[in-house]
Amino acid sequence: MKNPGRKLSVIMPAYNEESCIFETVQETIKTLQESLNLDYEIIVVDDGSDDGTYQVLRKIAQASDKVKIVRLNSHYGKGSALKQGFESVRGDLVGFLDADLDLHPSQLGSFLKIMQRTGSDVVVGSKRHPESRSNYPKRRRILSFFYHLMVCLLFRLPITDTQVGLKLFKYEVLEKVFPRLLVKAYAFDLELLANVRRLGYKVVEAPITLNFDRETHWGRIGLQAIRNMLTDTLAIFYRMYILKYYDKH
Question: What is the CATH number of the domain that holds 200?
Answer without folding.
Answer: 3.90.550.10
